[in-house]
Specification:
The protein is built from no helices and 11 strands. It has strands at residues 3-7, 10-12, 18-25, 33-39, 46-51, 57-59, 67-72, 77-82, 91-98, 112-115, 119-123.
Length: 124
């Protein structure tokens, strides 16, 4: 099975930055799409950014231009750089691995099979 462990969450001021990491193990590179999702209190889980099997990246409109996703192919580490944070970015952030049925669905949480435990990001 795939194991995913996130780190790097914490607190930041509005306009600040954080860097999230997700260490993946138990899978072969290029067999899963890797994504970041987040869930704020009282809201549904939403897709933030993803790296597809061909290494292309996809971003949600709400964070485009502020967040950057990257995959270290050697160390199997998925990174999400969060810049220009706003209080609306406050949420638990999850790393996930899966096989989205199409490029259109690459930010759909229902298409991901493996999940990390989540890391809290709080922006004030």
């Amino acid at each position: 099975d795939v194991q995913l462990v996130e780190s790097g969450g914490g607190s930041a001021q509005a306009g600040g930055s954080l860097r999230l990491s997700c260490v993946a193990s138990g899978y072969t590179y290029k067999t899963y799409c890797m994504g970041w999702f987040r869930q704020a209190p009282g809201k549904e889980r939403e897709g933030v950014a993803a790296v597809d099997i061909d290494n292309s990246t996809v971003y949600a409109d709400s964070i485009k231009g502020r967040f950057t996703v990257s995959l270290d192919q050697v160390k199997n580490i998925l990174v999400l750089q969060l810049n220009n944070l706003t209080p609306e970015d406050t949420a638990v952030y999850y790393c996930a691995a899966g096989h989205p049925k199409s490029l259109y669905r690459v930010l759909w949480s229902s298409d991901y099979q493996y999940w990390g435990q989540g890391t809290q990001v709080t922006v004030s």
